[in-house]
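Folds abound. A case:
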Amino acid sequence: MKNMFLSLMATLALMTIAAPAGSAQSFNPQDAIGTWTFYVKIAGAPPCQCIQLARFRADGTADGPANDHFSGAMLGEWKKTGFREATFTFLQNNIDKDGNAAGLYVIKGVMTLSDDGTKSTGTSKFQALDSSGAVTFTGTATFTATKLVVGQ
């Protein structure tokens, strides 16, 4: 009986040591991985229909579609930075009225997930860069977000 107990303990210890590094990224039930709809309120701006879709992947990358005719697809990265907290950086091409490249939007934010992991709130800072990389505009925003849940 003692040998069986020691064997079980050794097996559990080995499983813990051999667990993949990606499991450290896990939020358990409060997981940011998935597809999110962000509803954004830009500080100092009139109310707008500012909506961004983003998919947070298990490998720490994020992507999403363009949200209007003046931006390209969103690419980014995210990571767990605390209990029910994720930090992200998104990049999105800026396109002028003639369809030419006009720079880049850089959006950095922190989101706090709800207890069940299907909602979040957060803040972000953003800047617009021109085609030479010079900052042309900066601002802050708050947001709420809803995670896509299959079957609901």
Summary: Helices lie at 2-18. Strands lie at 34-42, 50-56, 61-64, 71-82, 85-95, 101-113, 119-129, 135-147. The longest strand covers residues 101-113.
